[in-house]
Amino acid sequence: MIKNDDDNLVLVDSINSVDELNAKFYGRFPYPWQAIRFDYLEDQSFETAMLNQDIGVWTHDRIPPEPRIWVAGCGTNLAVITALKFPRARVIGSDLSPTSLEICAETAKQLGVSNLELKQESINQAAYREEFDYIINTGVIHHNADPQATLARIYAALKPDGVLELMVYNRFQWAIPAAFQKAIRLLGSNGPAIDFDSDLVIAKTMIGELPQDTLIGIVGNYRDFSDAMLADELLQPVLHSYTVESLADLVASCGLEIILPCLNQLDKAEQKYSWNIEFQNPRLKEVYESLSDVNRWQVTNLLLRERAGWLWFYVQRTDSPYQRKSEKEICEDFLNTTFDRSGTVQRSLVRNADGSYRLLPRSISYPAPSANASVEKIVNAVDGHRTMKEIFQELGGDIALPVRLARIMLATSAFPYLKAVTTDKH
């Protein structure tokens, strides 16, 4: 049995029964809500290059120019977003909920997305075998009866040199919502049977009754959420959660290993850019930096607890022809790489009052100018000829960021200011 830190499994009977339960839940509460705006870039290879840089591949050749992508658990929007980000890819979006897939299909039709295939299927029953260069599975396996079995199906679908983007709940972020969910189950009039509409009424009532000066009172922040968002946060019927350590154990049990954290839109919005603590005490710093990546990130997870980031990581197969590099090694490669300033044009489609979408006539430069002074100085110094190490040496004391944070805030999908100079002509 793979250890996990907290289970909300009152309603679990079997893998198949949980599939039916999740299909019913997301049929009632399609998630996420229909987007107001979708963006895409005119440079069709831009996001693929940045995805390669996310995992420390500065030659941009691990994720191929025309990748095959599986969005495993796509909800209403994620498959469409992925197809727009990677227009040269062939994308499959899978979900249990026919309601979510109907919304997704209608949005794709209105946006003119042609590189997306949608399937109503369970990950637990999927029979893909080494088909995908890139798999996105975020916020899904922790809602399954046996996350290890679900992840094993994803492993089977991943090419040996492929990359998995995986997110599961951070135990310390989800302890309070899990407690709330368990209380809802006990208060529900039907006991172990489930009535989502009744649970929603109980949840909304309870939010107004809880004392605000207690930890559980934080759920009061959800009172103005939409029904779908409140339900996903507080009523989801099956919930596993993990720490970095137990997630690493889970992926290892399926023949996988963590590459690097994935800076996602949620952590970026909260300015949680790194899984590293920059200790000042020399002895403490020495001990902390001597740890393996997973152990170092686990210390961060334990010390920062609910303030740590989402458990959102890039993962690969342990038999990958790309031998895993440590974060330190990836940062050393970053310093030895020559970069040029990146840039393309972003176009946006916005939703009309009738639910249709229209293309805005004006385009904008992408990425937007950096607001961080230290990053801006580095970007301005880049010339396409010198290595990053040479630029760091030139700027010296003007750089306030440690190298591992500079890598994230300069040359990743979240902060795509710099693109490695390669001979790639794609």
Please tell me about this protein's structure.
The chain has 426 residues and is α/β, with parallel strands linked by helices. It folds into three domains: 6-171 and 239-331, Rossmann fold, CATH 3.40.50; 175-234, no CATH class; 339-420, no CATH class. The protein has 16 helices and 15 strands. The chain has helices at residues 15-28, 46-54, 78-85, 98-111, 147-157, 171-187, 196-209, 227-234, 244-253, 265-269, 282-289, 293-304, 327-335, 373-381, 388-395, 403-410; strands at 6-8, 37-41, 68-72, 90-95, 116-120, 132-138, 158-168, 239-241, 256-261, 311-317, 339-341, 344-351, 357-359, 364-366, 418-420. The strands form four sheets. Strands 5-4-3-6-7-10-9 form a seven-stranded mixed beta sheet, with helices on both faces. Strands 2, 12, 13 and 14 form a four-stranded antiparallel beta sheet that branches. Strand 12 (344-351) and strand 13 (357-359) form a beta hairpin. The radius of gyration is 22 Å and the shape is globular.
The domain tally reads 3
**Overall strand count:** 15
What would the CATH topology of the largest domain be? Rossmann fold
Regions with little confidence, pLDDT below 50 for 5+ residues: 1-5
Structural class: alpha/beta
Mean pLDDT rating = 91
End-to-end separation in angstroms reads 45 Å
* CATH homologous group name of the largest domain: Vaccinia Virus protein VP39
Strands of the biggest beta sheet: in what spatial order?
5-4-3-6-7-10-9
Count of helical regions: 16
Examine the secondary-structure arrangement and name the CATH architecture of the largest domain.
Answer: 3-Layer(aba) Sandwich
Please outline the major beta sheet.
7 strands, mixed
The helix fraction, in percent, is: 25-40%
Radius of gyration: 22 Å
Strand content: 15-25%
What is the CATH class name of the largest domain? Alpha Beta
Shape: globular
